[in-house]
Specification:
The chain is mainly α and 192 residues long. The chain contains five helices and no strands. Helix 1 runs antiparallel to helix 4 and helix 3 runs antiparallel to helix 4.
């Protein structure tokens, strides 16, 4: 009986061991399947991670490239702005110079017009209109020469007055003209 119990206990032990071994095999098989699925999921996640990492690196490179391009564009725009500002300053200086030159030219034209008006009054109006033009003039030298000519009534004073008028007109206009100092010498010089 003891043997029988021993055999039954042994059989039960072997059955339990066999069932335990089968259970462990099934459990190992399931764990192996889960491990394979986990590894496949890990591999898929790793590929997605690598793809995302690659896209992130590409996006970062694109961002840095665009940032560099933007920086270059900004520097170019700043250089163009400086250049434009320099051109504006030059144009403003040119405009100021042109205005000053225009003012100078207007002053010269006004001086020429007043002298021409005196000449016109002499040639085409009366002596009193000529005298009035001379007296209304701002030119002290002209007034002095006219006074001298009026008092002396000499040809030389008249020539000196006309020479001064023509010389002052040519000086104001920038035309070179040499007055004749002695009319008689000019006439003799032409004959001889």
């Amino acid at each position: 009986m003891f043997k029988k119990i021993f055999y039954i206990a042994s059989a039960l032990f072997l059955t339990v061991a066999l069932l335990g071994s089968m259970g462990l095999s099934v459990w190992t098989y399931n764990l192996n399947n889960e491990l394979e699925q986990s590894q496949a999921g890990y591999k898929s996640l790793q590929e997605k991670y690598n793809k995302l990492d690659s896209e992130t690196s590409q996006a970062k490179a694109d961002y840095e490239s665009r940032l560099d391009e933007t920086q270059i564009d900004l520097e170019s725009a700043q250089a163009e702005l400086k250049d434009a500002q320099a051109r504006i300053n030059k144009l403003e200086n040119d405009l100021d110079a042109a205005r000053a030159e225009n003012k100078s030219l207007r002053s010269k034209v006004s001086a020429i017009q007043s002298k021409v008006a005196v000449l016109n009054a002499f040639w085409f109006t009366s002596d009193s209109a000529f005298a009035a033009r001379v007296e209304s003039s701002d030119d002290a030298q002209l007034k002095k020469l006219y006074k001298s000519m009026s008092e002396s009534q000499s040809w030389d004073d008249f020539v000196e007055l006309m020479s001064y008028l023509i010389q002052s007109i040519s000086d104001a206009s920038g035309i070179s003209w040499q007055p004749i100092n002695n009319v008689n010498a000019a006439i003799i010089g032409q004959i001889g």
